[in-house]
Description:
Layout: H1 3-10, H2 16-23, H3 32-60, H4 62-98, H5 122-129, E1 130-131, H6 134-138, E2 146-156, E3 161-171, E4 174-180, E5 186-193, E6 197-200, H7 204-207, E7 215-220, E8 223-228, H8 232-278, H9 284-318, H10 322-334, H11 340-362, H12 364-368, H13 375-383, H14 387-407, H15 415-436, H16 444-467, H17 473-492, H18 498-529, E9 536-537, H19 541-553, E10 571-572, H20 576-595, H21 601-621, H22 627-649, H23 674-685
Parallel strand pairs: 1-5
Antiparallel strand pairs: 2-3, 2-8, 3-4, 4-5, 6-7, 7-8, 9-10
GO cellular component, one term: exocyst
Keywords: Coiled coil, Exocytosis, Protein transport, Transport
Protein name: Exocyst component Exo84 C-terminal domain-containing protein
Amino acid sequence: MTSNEDVLFQTDAFSPSDYIRDRLKGVKIGDETRKLRQLRSEMSALNHASQETLKNNVFRNYQQFIDASKEISHLEREIYQLTHSLIEQKQVIENLLLMTDDDKNSIHTVSSHSTTTSNTNPIQILMQKMEGIGGILNNMSTSEKVILHGEMEQFDVETKKPVQKCMLILLSHRLIIGNINAAGKYVMESTLSLNSVAPVNVKDRESGAANAGKVLKLLIFPESRCYLCESARIRTLWFDELEQAKREILHKGSLVRQATIRGKRQTVKERKAAAAATVIEEKASFVEEDEDVGEEERNDNDISWLAELPAELDDCIAHRDLDQAVELIHEWKQCPTKDAVIDIQLQMRENTIVQLLSDDVSRPGAVHGGPRAMKKARTLLTQLGRGTYATDVYLRRRSAMQRNAMRDVTVSEEPISYVKQLCTLYGNAVSDIANEFRSMPQYYCQVLQWCSYELSTLLNLIRRHVIEVAPAIAVIAYTWKNVMHTMEDLTVIGVHLNFEVNRLLSAPLEKALQGNFENICDAVKMRISEEKWKPYVLDSESALNRLVEELSDVGINVEWAISANDETKSSLNVSQNVVHFARVAHTLSKDLAPLRLSPIQVLCEVYADELWKMYLQHLADNIRDGAVFAYSTTFILTMVLPVCDKILYGEEGELIRLIDQFPSLAPYADPSDEEKQKDDEEVAHV
């Protein structure tokens, strides 16, 4: 398709019938079918190409889409937190403006309409707007207050239309509902206890797209009502305040009951102590009788408290008040009075609480909340005596987080970068865990076991995606250096796992090194078989200078071997294969040096000795007259061998000793033999 046709397809006035008619102009009668099939094939090819392009664009921008989604989610969370903070500040300002000296404890109102800054008592405003609520508002106790009030519209879910205007007033313990009359004033319809009211979420398909997020649904047994708020924010505010008010009622009731029972138990103890103090001088039989009476009364109160405890725990579990539930479990275990039937019921509740806390830690959403999201549930499990279990569940969740993070690391063509990213992820995770459990030494064994397990996962990924895929000695050396650098950082904070690295990487490193050394030996043997002992002639004098600089950068001097012949100014009196071996030997020594600190240290030294013995044997077997051989042998023994020895072992002496096994090469290893060099130069001039 041409660019003109592409533009034609994208115009708003494009007509398929006109386009086909234009394409069929000038077609012979009877060829229309063939032309249409050809056109369909072109359209199919164009459609396929467009789909492939679209797919490639999606794949190419997938990571950007994921990053943008994460950033949007992060910004939405921050916006929600900011909005919530602003709402709270607005409530505080409104409450301060509406507060009077006569009734400071009853003013905490937020209207669904725009609030005024006047100093009028909200109770008076509500009494003016709604008839029949004067008795309720005027008789409120000091602990009661007006939380919210506002005008709404009763909403019919079936027709998705408003029915009538209503006014809702939320107090600390009740909800007042009023309907508007013909005179335009609200009249109290009903007053409901908050224990019989439950707010529920309304799905968008029930409220309609236009009212999505604005409908507040209240379950009032045995029916339900829906109210349309002005905005989604107002609806959320009412929903949250209703839930909070119900939780406060339950919490206060629980505290009152617990305080009453504790007071009875404490009263018994005080009476027992007073009785014991007054009868010190009385007869022992009377003291024993009074103690028995006090013990019986105390047991009765404890049994009464224990009998109510299962119901209290059920309320806490139903409202997810697990902090209070754990506290009640502690008090039950500390109570000296026991009842077998009640103990069985309480043990069942304790198991339920443990399961709920375990689900909070184990659910997939806990991973996205980060380690801090699991801390509360883990702390409560520890308080219940399940510290080891809580730590195990927590570490398993951290393992899931670690696997997800490692799965996001892309296996690129740069294996060293891949290894660095994996090591960084592992090091940060272990440091975080170690710092978190620093003050809990009783869990060190579990932490160390987790670190060892995650280390095995890390090394398996490195082995599968790096060592087995790109087993070059340089890659293996850099991989080992990065892993050991991470282990050194962890050793500083008290996590020593070097032994695990040696155990898990020993076999893969040995196998990779063996395969690389066999390839190097084969290449060197092939070069040896092709050796002609001719000068190394380069293309130009600049190429010779580059070669000299290259060898000089690694500490190998070859300037003394430059040919003095005017006809061959760009040549060396050293064989080309000898220069190649010098490069191979230097690179091998540089790569094997860091691996000498690994579990394959002995293998590295054996392979280095084997390579040098093979080449020295080659030199010893081919001793001959001529400047090229003399210069080449001297170059290997006096320049290349000492440099490789120093790189591999850190000091000269290990590889140099190999010359003693070849006495015929000793004259070439003495750099002070100037006469021999002069003779060789004269031969070179000839």
